[in-house]
């Protein structure tokens, strides 16, 4: 089996992580205590049992089995106890392994340096021990996924420290992150600092990062779902739907993108350019739901509409390097392929021309709960640089005046680290833009040799291409 170990870090990471586990557990008919809802379960009598559709679910990927219980392969980490206490006393409190909750006593106070260098570093080994124990429970680990925010101190600082350590210790395994970017009008001034410092780490440590922008998600609620003041709970449900969509191919049988590595091979043409935007459909206000009878063309149209993306970028001003549309429900493969091909043909200027077959489609016949048909869109678009530009713009304004830096230097950080992180992000933006503007200079890219690919976690690919 190809197992994935999940790690939630910090408040946002744990709130989103819990929403993810709630969603996929419901999809796989697993109740709050880890029991599978099969025909003789009390809930089955109430009509929650959806029978043999789930007989082939790849449960081992995300759950280990302990007697008759399914236990999430999940580690829950925070520097303060509050969020984890809420998880423990919530509906999923008994689902997670009790030893896998790890917290310290006080938060990183929105300070990346506290998460990465001081308070976080103190509990690093404790967390790694639990992660190692989870890895020992696997047969053939495919990798890790982390949920965290970039704007705070724990998810951002300790989260990236953990991923750097995982990258060292499990060099040839995959690391995926679901990273929440701060909204423009967030309450905490230093979020751009934390985000740039964290992003600079993600460049090196993850193989795939799904960029979830709180700003764009607020707008989706206000514009598409007609909810003017969405709560974190509302937003996290949407994130969980997206994560469920992205992980569908990992959790149900099928050929395409059946593990994290295959997904990355299809979506990441250059090692550093692994930051994805995601879209989801259908998205409509609940009042409009009963008037909406979705067809595949309508679903596809919604899916590819830039306003449904979870990152505040305009895909029509960039170019897609690669993308994938993952459908679920009772639809014909031919119909979705035709729709996607039509879109690709009509908008050929939106796709780079050096990757001929850069649009993938896949179908899983099992829909999520309560909807007949959904689709998730994962794209590697050069437009993502607009998100980095926004965060960097705010970083630059403060950094020019060295505002708030003492909070970070007080934890032992050197100002050069800020300069270096900033320059990494600028390089990343220009890497994306050179593909957008067709200014690719081949000599700058040397062919990978065997050693380098193995070091960067691409051992299987190195072997496949005979490097
Ligand atoms: N979407 C979403 N964003 C959240 C949630 N909780 C916090 N955030 C965002 O995350 C950022 C703050 O980070 P937190 O996750 O609260 O911080 P932390 O990782 O716990 O770190 P410290 O509290 O500083 O130790 C801000 O940009 C918040 O808007 C959540 O449940 N959902
Ligand atoms: Mg916190």
TrEMBL record:
A GO CC term attached to the entry: microtubule
Alphabetical keyword list: Cytoplasm, Cytoskeleton, GTP-binding, Magnesium, Metal-binding, Microtubule, Nucleotide-binding
Organism, scientific name: Starmerella bacillaris (Yeast)
Family the entry assigns: Belongs to the tubulin family.
InterPro entries referenced in this protein's UniProt entry, alphabetically: Beta-tubulin_BS, Beta_tubulin, Tub_FtsZ_C, Tubulin, Tubulin/FtsZ-like_C, Tubulin/FtsZ_2-layer-sand-dom, Tubulin/FtsZ_GTPase_sf, Tubulin_C
Protein's name in the database: Tubulin beta chain
Location in the cell: Cytoplasm, Cytoskeleton
Pfam families: Tubulin, Tubulin_C
Keyword Cytoplasm attached: yes
GO molecular function terms noted in the UniProt entry: GTP binding; GTPase activity; metal ion binding; structural constituent of cytoskeleton
A GO BP annotation: microtubule-based process
Named cofactor requirement(s): Mg(2+)
Ranges for domain Tubulin/FtsZ GTPase: 59-254
Domain Tubulin/FtsZ 2-layer sandwich: 256-393
